[in-house]
Specification:
By secondary structure, the protein is α/β, with parallel strands linked by helices. The chain is built from 15 helices and 14 strands. Strands 13-12-11-7-10-9-8-14 form an 8-stranded mixed beta sheet. The chain has a 6-stranded parallel beta sheet with strand order 3-2-1-4-5-6, with helices on both faces. Helix 3 links the parallel strand 2 and strand 3. Helix 2 packs parallel to helix 3.
């Protein structure tokens, strides 16, 4: 997760491409919006390809629908000696994460799904090379993942596909009795977020946003320090996804079609809040003693992608038919029930160094990342930033036991999966749940609504339905006694 690495969560699942380089999946997903100028249609049941939040006041209501099941807060996994995994999506993200699943103790990759047969075959070869039985493969079209989810020998479904499919795949997995982990964002609409919450509660299956940045070394160190009171009483934090993706979004091969770039023709808000929001939410115990209540968002004009296209794309390229509306930089302010403030930023279409900001401040001092630096009393008193490396003793036990983890993004991917698989094997409560997934993703539709309303605050639903008040565990976990 560094400036010199590819984007941390590039979900570029390979799939068939059609005329002008647009994938068949993209065409199907956007066909219903084609007649609406900018491709914006209202949210509603069954509108899987719709991108636009409903403009009616009810769209951003904070009122929770009636609960259909029982809370999933504090619900442990079923204990099992081996976690059997099915993977949907074997592009940039899924094709690399399979290596980490295969490196985990007590994990077996049972089934793989991707419409591109070559990618599935390559991933299957990795499974057998790791000494595991040959996995079942599902390559017959966009909906073959449904058959994977129907299998009786899978405990956990991992989805790493274009964003449009995350909700449908999570929903299908739970309806078939599987726990599910989804790459960011878990869904793109408020009604979808509520449906995932309700399904998790009804099916008694966990639905998790696999936010790897919550498991970064710095993030976990700051988390432990915050919980120990090193920053005093917490006041504010900030997180972001500021990453120049222009070249990759116009690369016809990297994303296997323009699916990510097309989202810039649909929404104006923060398309990718989870990397910045998740860690700060953990610091502040969001859904574990505090909750986020409102978001106000502001966006700049959308100029960056059009200028990049003019400078780099030849006449006749399919991208010239696109009209970009996504703000080049979105800035959001989120208020919590305890009065704290969280600032979120999103910018993937202008030149700048990579940054997730990762800031936390309280009555005793502040931490800021990119570059990492700290100033807390009584350790620092001269208005000069201190050396954060001197606080290595505060590292989480996972980082102390896995000081040099394999995989990309500085090892946080491995740490995240190791801990998730550990909780499943030992029958523990997961570090995060469907309420965290819904909360961390809610800025996607709500920031868009706020920008349309000239920054007017939008209420953030209480996905826990009042249970956020009770303190409980999370990523700042205790080392379990392995048996």
């Amino acid at each position: 997760m560094h400036d010199d690495t590819p984007p941390p969560h590039e979900r570029g699942q390979a799939h068939e491409t059609g005329p002008e380089g647009h994938s068949r999946r993209d065409v199907l997903r956007t066909a219903g919006a084609a007649g609406a100028g900018l491709g914006l249609t209202a949210f509603g049941p069954g509108s899987a390809g719709a991108a636009e939040p409903a403009s009616t006041p009810a769209a951003a209501t904070a009122e929770a629908p009636a609960r259909q099941g029982r809370t999933m807060i504090g619900v442990p996994f079923e204990r099992r000696s081996t976690v059997r995994v099915g993977i949907i999506g074997l592009g940039n993200r899924g094709g690399s994460m399979i290596d980490l699943f295969l490196a985990m103790p007590g994990v077996r990759v049972v089934a793989l799904c991707d419409p591109v047969k070559d990618k599935t075959a390559k991933a299957a070869a990795k499974v057998t090379a790791a000494g595991q039985p040959s996995p079942a493969t599902y390559t017959k079209g966009d909906h073959d993942f449904e058959k994977l989810c129907q299998r009786g020998d899978i405990d956990f479904v991992y989805a790493a596909t274009p964003w449009d499919w995350h909700f449908e795949m999570a929903r299908t997995a739970m309806l078939n009795g599987k726990h599910v982990g989804v790459e960011c964002p878990v869904a793109l609409r408020l009604d979808q977020l509520w449906e995932l919450v309700d399904l998790s509660e009804r099916t008694r299956r966990h639905c998790m946003q696999l936010e790897n940045c919550c498991y970064g070394r710095n993030e976990m160190r700051v988390l432990r320090m915050a919980h120990a009171g090193k920053f005093g009483r917490l006041l504010h934090g900030a997180g972001a996804y500021n990453h120049d993706l222009r070249g990759l979004m116009f690369d016809p091969d990297y994303y296997e079609g323009p699916w990510r770039r097309l989202w810039h023709t649909r929404l104006r808000g923060d398309l990718y809040p989870n990397h910045g929001f998740g860690p700060v939410a953990n610091y502040m115990d969001i859904n574990r003693g505090d909750r986020v209540t409102h978001i106000s968002s502001f966006g700049t004009p959308s100029l960056g992608l059009a200028e990049y296209r003019a400078a780099h794309m030849p006449p006749g390229d399919p991208s010239w038919k696109e009209s970009y509306i996504e703000s080049d930089r979105t800035i959001s302010l989120v208020q919590t029930a305890k009065g704290r403030v969280i600032r979120l930023e999103h910018d993937v279409s202008t030149p700048h160094p990579y940054s997730r900001i990762n800031q936390l401040g309280g009555t005793k001092g502040v931490f800021e990342d990119y570059p990492e630096r700290i100033y807390i009393e009584p350790d620092h008193t001269d208005d000069t930033w201190g050396d954060f490396s001197k606080y290595a003793d505060w590292d989480h036990w996972l980082w102390k036991e896995h000081a040099d983890p394999p995989g990309g993004h500085g090892g946080m991917d491995y740490i995240m999966l190791y801990r998730l698989m550990q909780t499943m094997r030992l029958g523990l409560v997961p570090d995060f749940d469907v309420y965290d997934a819904a909360t961390w993703t809610s800025p996607v539709p709500l920031s868009h609504l706020s920008i349309k309303a000239k920054g007017a605050p939008q209420p953030i639903p209480d996905f826990t339905r009042g249970e956020w008040r009770a303190p409980r565990g999370g990523v700042d976990s205790e080392r379990p006694a392995e048996e």
